[in-house]
Amino acid sequence: MTTTEKLWEIEPSGPLRGDVTVRGAKNAVSKHMVAAMLGDGPSVIRNAPDVGEAGLTAAMLEHIGMRVERDDSEITVVPGPVANAGVAKAFTGLNRIPILMLGPLLHLAGEAFVPLVGGDPIGRRPVDFHVDALRAFGAEVDIAEDGIHARAKELRGTRIDLPYPSVGATETVLLTAVRAKGRTVIRNAATEPEIVELALFLQRMGAGISFSPERRIVVEGVERLHGAQTRLGGDRIEAFSYLVAGLVTGGEVRVHGCPQDRLVTPITTLARMGAEFQITDDWIMASAPNGLRSAAVQTDTHPGFATDWQTPLMVLFTQASGMSVLHETVYENRLAYVPALQSMGAEIEVYDTCLGGPACRYHDTGAAHSAVVRGVSKLRGGDVTMPDIRAGFSAVLAGAAAEGPSTLRGVHHIERGYHRPVEQFQKLGLNLRSREV
Ligand SMILES: CC(=O)N[C@H]1[C@@H](OP(=O)(O)OP(=O)(O)OC[C@H]2O[C@@H](n3ccc(=O)[nH]c3=O)[C@H](O)[C@@H]2O)O[C@H](CO)[C@@H](O)[C@@H]1O
Ligand SMILES: C=C(OP(=O)(O)O)C(=O)O
Question: In what residue span(s) does the Enolpyruvate transferase domain sit (predicted)?
Answer without folding.
Answer: 11-420
